[in-house]
Design goal:
It contains 13 helices and 22 strands. The chain has about 575 residues and is an alpha+beta fold. It has a domain at about 420-570: Alpha-Beta Plaits (2-Layer Sandwich), CATH 3.30.70.270.
Length: about 575
Amino acid sequence: MNGLNRSSLRRELVIPITVLVIVVSAAIGWVSMKAGSDAVHTLTQRILIDMATRINLLTEKHLDGAITALESVAPSSQHIPQTQDFSPDMHLLESKFWAASGLFMDVNNYVYFGGKDGRFVGVYRVSRDDVQLLWREPGAAKRQVYSVKTIGDRHELIRSDELDPRKRPWYQAAMSSEQPVWSKIYNNFSFHYPTITLAKAVFEKNHEFVGVVATDLTLKELSGFLSKLDISKNSVAYIVDADGYIVATSGKELPERTVNDLPERMRAIDMKTMLISETFKKINQTHASGAETYSFDIGNGTVDVAVSPLGNKQGLRWQTVVVVPRSDFMSAINQGLVQSMVIASACIIFALVIALTIVERVIRDIRKLTSAAKKFGNGETMPKLDIHRKDEIGILAQTFTEMENKLRFDKLTQVANRESLFSQINALQKQARENPASSEGFTLLFVDLDRFKFINDNYGHDAGDKALVIIAARLRAAIRDTDEVARYGGDEFVLLLKGTRNSIDINHMAEKISSLVEEPIVFEDVVVDVGASIGWANFPEDGDDYVRLIKIADSRMYSRKRDKKGSQSIRLA
């Protein structure tokens, strides 16, 4: 009887406690999974949108480069005070094209003109030391292609062909349009990589049509940029045009195939990469007008997708798509859930108190992660996570911090990157709108390095990178703790100075920065120096949005640079 009672009591105690611990363990697992999933989902959406924005900024910079190249040769009426008389003089155009083709050589190095009388002149910069002049006189049977060193050089004839510009699609499309016209993407038969052409009709002063100016924009740099994006292990980013053809992709699958020995562009739905083909099918069923995030179930599981329109202001209807399998971010959380259940089953005798203590600790840290993810998603600086763990939650916390560093700080110089700068400016503008009485405004200093190209060309890019790191450190030393230094791109930096609106203070700071930057830089066996051209813009006097402020500061910087160079500088339209 006593044995039966002991057995019954054991059952009454052990079974409920066991069930309770299992339920608590399951609850812990569910709460951990839900909180972690919410935090990851919030952070993933922000990462996807930020990545799509970064891709759009670079791509639109390339597209704007093509527009700038044409504007420098044939300005539009809305960009000049009066109607311009376009001269079809071939020698004059040769000089202009030398300048225009050198503005953005990496992606926009070929500018040309086809006249209504069949004349053709173009300058193609194959590289910095290899320039080709393409020349066809009016009435000539063939076009001549020369390898040239300077304007007017005709010593080395490479080849000749029978190209008549009037029969080319870009000529015919632009001739019948009052606005610049983009071609469809094609594989250039001469240069062997994806290309898109921007062309515009030009007129003499009497409004008589004289021909078409055009420039080719290469797209190989876009795929190179996408392939370097560090999003997640199995993610993919791609750009599609209005007809569904791949413009660029971060994946290893090429966006083209060979049909009858000729290259043919690939449609997104025909790609073998499932993350591209399947997500594009889903995207076609949506009707988003702006940047949006989605979650789709495809053959490999659930994926999170960001879609952002691209090129609308340049006259294109492209889309940027970033796809991340949810398993990339959820694997650590899923593993943690399994381990928690195993440990809870093995430690069932420790009862509910210990389990609740563990739960509270887990939930406390997960709440920190969720709060940090929400702040990060709102563009605020993520607070320091006081989480010192070696398990999956600690890994997740460390991953959050590393992701913030990747998104907010320039990898080379460790100063703020462009996106971080824009977020800080937006926060200051929001504060000014909400409490204008206490707003002290701020100043942007746009710093462009002079003679930096000389270091790269003569001592290599490693030396250039070291110089950028040293200069970034000098810029940080020149400002207050409340100010910020950001690398805007290449050899350009932007300084955000808070509460500095007096012109004397600004000029003093600019002089101080110039003096620091221009101090000699000592490498192992050589001493080099760089200069600094600095432009500035004040908020709110010069504008109430960061795009206008950056443009004003950039314009003032170029004015100073132009003053330094004098007549040798190239004037941009």
